[in-house]
């Protein structure tokens, strides 16, 4: 994901996804002026750089408003960057998407609202048959058998095919959504908060399922989550976002053991931990991207902010093995 | 139970649609204590809070057992007229989704002022001054301007601060906080939990949190009540129970908690299942690795554990 450490650079490996200084500016009406024709630019993403290697598992972590969903839409080719380049196998994602069904077949998506993403009038079998038919994965006669196989792979019994999502539990619906995503035989699975809002035991069951699928099928996994525990359980690499930027990337264990960016450190401390007292919370809230400060966009909440932070907007720079951080005064390794 | 309790709930039982969704729930709370109700969705946590606020619908009229509030006596079966005197004054509640708990048609300031005037009989000017003070207390910056904001103009965190201000406006003795932060980001979650704890502590109020996050419960509550399918399975001092759970369900719940660095999770298979098909005895019997033949037949009573300050409902505890 990150720039390779010198020495390993010999492997000319093609990343699945590569984002080069991606910017996405939405034109919006200024707040409070509902009738105004004038629009202002809202930078939902700004200078985002990310490499996703084939077979990697990457967690995209950030709070709401940090730009995760916009980044996801850019990766899926649903939104074009207003600047910079978003590549899939070295070709522009938008172009790939328009070129035919191959891209949509290879990059499958599991949505946060699994229940809402499945037509309630369709039974589970029909919902899974849809991508099988659409992409012509198997001849029509083999569709029922393939549905049973897919259900089995996600731990559901074959008779689930005849049921409707309204009659399934939250955990079962998520499994159906995963089965449907796998129907097109993708090599990349993108999941948006796929395990949030579930009971802990159901969440644990799903995490184990996703982990097994990723390993068995060699999937490239891009997992959007706000939960660092989930990121650390499922993903080898992590990218932490704040206000439209990636502020830190690297191997998940290393980043969470010793975050370099003050925001990563604050997220790390805010995660509930058994019998540890609640720590001093980070003050304030994520500001609106409409009035970004001049220097570092985290300066208003940062406990380490110094005078230069108000002037200089820090770029994502190398910071130890496989790690990058966008901070003028990163935390040292312990 | 101690005579000094603020709230004593005994054998609270509730049927809904033919199912027993609360089954002999027993718990107690001392003044100034924080208590966590934990368990999976559908375990009855919110129903307990709703029942103790007198907010159950008429279809839940068949409620049995006792709930005594210090200085007030029996709560269950009170007419609405008496409940409405208690709510806001001695009991109040914060909901998970502040956005929908607040009235979208009125400014948040007006909503707080209304509560202050109704419950404390303050004049308009006095209520407005008090509202401003409360907004500042709960960390709403630019409080003066925020008083005239509509709920949708505020972030989720700010909406929840407004809820806290409204809930604490009349210095209640007991605050219910039903998943007050599960819709919020973690850094905001930490702010709101700290705020609720600080504000209840300085007022000497008690707080009952409904939480699904055991780690968060361990950080914020003195005592814990673990529920499974409407039954209390284990309760006592949070640190003791989470350190060494004795009920197999508590142990399982704890083992599913994901912390940073967790390598392997070993969750139980299946799910709670339908209330209509609960075994006669222990409701956890179908999923319990320690179940004995008698478990599904005979309901284990909630009894004080011989060692330490905890109650336990299990025939074969750890
Ligand atoms: N279609 C859009 N038009 C205007 N603004 C948008 C649009 N989509 C997202 N935004 C804004 O972009 C920022 C990032 O949002 P989003 O990607 O949804 O973050 P997240 O998924 O992390 O919550 C927010 O300020 C959001 O309001
Ligand atoms: S650049 Fe400065 S303000 Fe920004 S995160 Fe680093 S120390 Fe904090
Ligand atoms: S009573 Fe029996 S089934 Fe229930 S938790 Fe105890 S051992 Fe398990
Ligand atoms: Mg989002």
UniProtKB/TrEMBL annotation, chain A:
Transmembrane segments: none annotated. PROSITE patterns: ABC_TRANSPORTER_2 (PS50893). CDD domains: ABC_NikE_OppD_transporters. It comes from the Bacteria. One of its GO terms (biological process) is peptide transport. Residues 20-268 form the ABC transporter domain. It is a peripheral membrane protein. Belongs to the ABC transporter superfamily. This is Peptide/nickel transport system ATP-binding protein.
Automatic annotation (TrEMBL), chain B:
PROSITE patterns: ABC_TRANSPORTER_1, ABC_TRANSPORTER_2. SUPFAM superfamilies: P-loop containing nucleoside triphosphate hydrolases (SSF52540). One of its GO terms (cellular component) is plasma membrane. It comes from the Bacteria. GO terms for biological process: peptide transport; transmembrane transport. Keywords: ATP-binding, Cell membrane, Membrane, Nucleotide-binding, Transport. It is found in: Cell inner membrane. CDD domains: ABC_NikE_OppD_transporters (cd03257). InterPro entries: AAA+_ATPase, ABC_Ni/Peptide_Import, ABC_transporter-like_ATP-bd, ABC_transporter-like_CS, Oligopep_ABC_C, P-loop_NTPase. Residues 7-254 form the ABC transporter domain. The keyword Nucleotide-binding applies. Pfam families: ABC_tran, oligo_HPY. GO terms for molecular function: ATP binding; ATP hydrolysis activity. Its main location: membrane. It is a peripheral membrane protein. Belongs to the ABC transporter superfamily. NCBIfam families: oligo_HPY. PANTHER family: DIPEPTIDE TRANSPORT ATP-BINDING PROTEIN DPPD, OLIGOPEPTIDE TRANSPORT ATP-BINDING PROTEIN APPD. This is Peptide/nickel transport system ATP-binding protein/oligopeptide transport system ATP-binding protein.
